Amino acid sequence: MADANNDLTGVWRSTYRYTSSGRDGEFTSEHFVRLKRQGTSIVLESLPRDSRSYLLIRMSLQGNIATGSWQEETDPHGYYKGAVYHGAIQMIVHDDGKKMRGKWLGYSKDMKINVGPWELAYVGDTAPAH
Known about the structure:
By secondary structure, the chain is an all-beta fold.
């Protein structure tokens, strides 16, 4: 359980799937994020990487349920050209405090509401070399 003995702080791999109507397919996006926890508040922020998108997640933790919002500024050199997207997220924290699984909800370029899977996996105090 995600209690005071397991503060969840550290580097996590964030992976989510989404459907792109413009590219007609399903894609996976991955970020390494640093999780900071203060009480029941969790903030995850992407680590600096070469020309990658920037991800920010803010959640409130109640027991093993984390609920909040996400925002992503896409890669300025990528397909979405720096567009900013945001939405809601809800995760279940695994009992060992090393995984979170859940769903995101957000809007698309064509103003439809989409939903998809999102997973966070603890990787340690520092990000793996890339």
